[in-house]
Automatic annotation (TrEMBL):
Signal peptide feature range: 1-17
Keyword Membrane included in the entry's annotation: yes
Composition bias, Basic and acidic residues: 502-516
Subcellular location: Cell outer membrane
Protein name per its UniProtKB record: OmpA/MotB domain protein
Residue ranges that the Swiss-Prot or TrEMBL entry lists as coiled coil: none
Matching Pfam families: OmpA (PF00691), PD40 (PF07676)
Classification via InterPro entries: 6-blade_b-propeller_TolB-like (IPR011042), Bact_OuterMem_StrucFunc (IPR050330), OMP_bac (IPR006664), OmpA-like (IPR006665), OMPA-like_CS (IPR006690), OmpA-like_sf (IPR036737), WD40 (IPR011659)
Keywords, alphabetical: Cell outer membrane, Membrane, Signal
Domain OmpA-like: residue ranges: 402-516
PANTHER family, per database record: LIPOPROTEIN YIAD-RELATED, STATOR ELEMENT OF FLAGELLAR MOTOR COMPLEX
Region (Disordered): 490-516
Amino acid sequence: MRLILSARLLIAANALFDVLAAAEIRQQPALEAINTAAQEFAPTFSADGKTMIFSSTRASGKGGFSHLYMSKLVDGKWSSPTPLHSVNSQFNDETPYLSADSKILLFASDRDGSIELPKDAQGRVRVSFDIYLAQWDGKTWSNPRPVQEINTPWNEKSPSLSRDGRYLFFSSWPFGDMQRSRIRVLDLKSSGNTIEDLPPHINSGNQETALVPGEDNTRYYFSSRRPGGKGGWDIWQTRFDKGVWAEPELLGGNVNTEGHEAFLAVSNGNYFISSTFNREKNDYDLNIEPIQEPKPAVVKKEEPKPPQKHWQVQLIDADTKEKIGGYVRLEVLEADSEKDAAYTAEQNGGANHAIELDAPKKVTSEEIVRLTGKSAGYLPSTEDTDVPTIEAGTYLLPLKKMQKNASLDIRSIYFDFDSARLKNSSVPTLKLILDFLKQNPKAEFEIIGHTDLKGTAEYNQALSEKRAESVRNWLVKNGVAENRLSVSGAGESRPVVARKGKPYDEQNRRTEFRMK
C-alpha cells in the first residue's frame, strides 16, 4: 500500500473542497437521491439528458476519496446513483465529462499510473492528478488510459470538449498550489500537440478552472474567484467565435450565491451547478436552475500574442537519444559575467513530455541561459545556451549514463585570474557535484583540469593540476571521502577547439569529472 499525498488530500491548498464539521443539504425534489452530507460535484450529461455522471465522496465521507457515479432521469427525478466500477480506482476519480455522442468519458484521477513527484519530507509519495479517457462499446466502459498528450507533473483536472470535438480544454496548476490554476487548450486537429493557455482576460490569475461548452458551439462557462462575483468561486460566461474569446461576464439569474459555485453543466434547458450556497457551508451539492438568455457578450478585439511565457527542455540519453525523465534547473545570467543568476526556475518531469519551465518576464537576447539536468542512473549535466536558441523550440539536454570512464565537462567552475583559487560563483555547480556524490556513495571521480591555449605548455600543465586539486579540496571539505577523488591536469593538451580567443578560450577552460 502506498502512502500518498495527493492533491485531493491537500485540502488546505484547494478551497474548492474545504471540509467543515457541519453539513447542510439543500435539497431539490429532482435531486433527492443525489445530494448527501458528502461532496457531490461536477455533473456531466448524455446528449438526451437522461443519464448523468458525477463525482462524489459518499462512499468514504466528505474528506475521503472521490469516485464517479451514474444516475438515470426517471419520471422527472434522478435515480439512486450507482458507482462506475469499470472506471473507478481505489484512489480519486472526479470531474468527468461526456463527449457529445456519449461514447467518450474524460475525467481526472490520481490513481496508480499517474505521474509521481519526489517524496516529501515525511516520505510520502506525491501523486498528481492526470486526465484519463474511457470509451463506451455499447455495453460497458473500457479500462481508462491516461491522455499522455496533456498530462504533466502539474495537476490536470476538469477536462471538457468543444461541441464540435475540435478542442480539448482542461485546468492545470502546480502540485499543491491551486492559486496558480489556469485553463489550457489542445487543438486536436493541429499537428504537434501544442498546448496553450487561454488569453489573460480568461486566465486572470484568480484561480480559473472547469471550463465547459454551453448550449451552442460558441458559448462557454467557467469558474473563477475574480473581482465582481457574488461569493468565492462564481460561474462566468464567455464566447469563443472565429478564434477570439469574448470578455467574460458574471452569469446572471440565481446561479451564483454568496458561497462557491463551480463545475456548471448544461442539459435540457437547465443549468446544473455544484454549489455550497452560503459562506458557512463548504460541502458541495448539485443545484438546478433554468437557463436564462444572457446579454450579448462584448467581443474583445484580437490582440497580438504576448511573448513566449514558457521554455521547454527535454532530457535525453546522450548515447541512445531516447527521452528520459528527471529534474531541470534553468538560470538566466548576464553575458560575460560570473555573477549569481538573475532568474532561476526548476521543475521535475517524466519522459513523455518536455519539462516546461516559466520563462522570465523580461529577458534580452544577449543573456545566457544555463541549464542543469539530473536523472536517476545518469551523471548530472550543466550547459549554457542563449535566449534565441531556447525560445526557438524544445531544448535537448543530454545526460550520460553512470558507467566507467563516463565523463562530464563543466565550464561553470570559475577561478581567479591566473590562479587556482575558486570563485564564489562556482559554489552552485560544486554543490551539484557534491549532491551527486552524496546520493551515489559508491561513485568515484578523477578530476581533470583543462586550460586554454594561452601561455606556455609547462605553465598551463601546472595550473590545471592546481585547479583540479582546488576542486577536490572543496568537495573533501564538504564531506566527500578523499579516497573517492583523484586529480590530474591536462593543461592545454586536449582542447575542445584548437584556437585562441573568444569564444574558444571559454570552451577549452573546463573541469572534467571522469567516473572511475
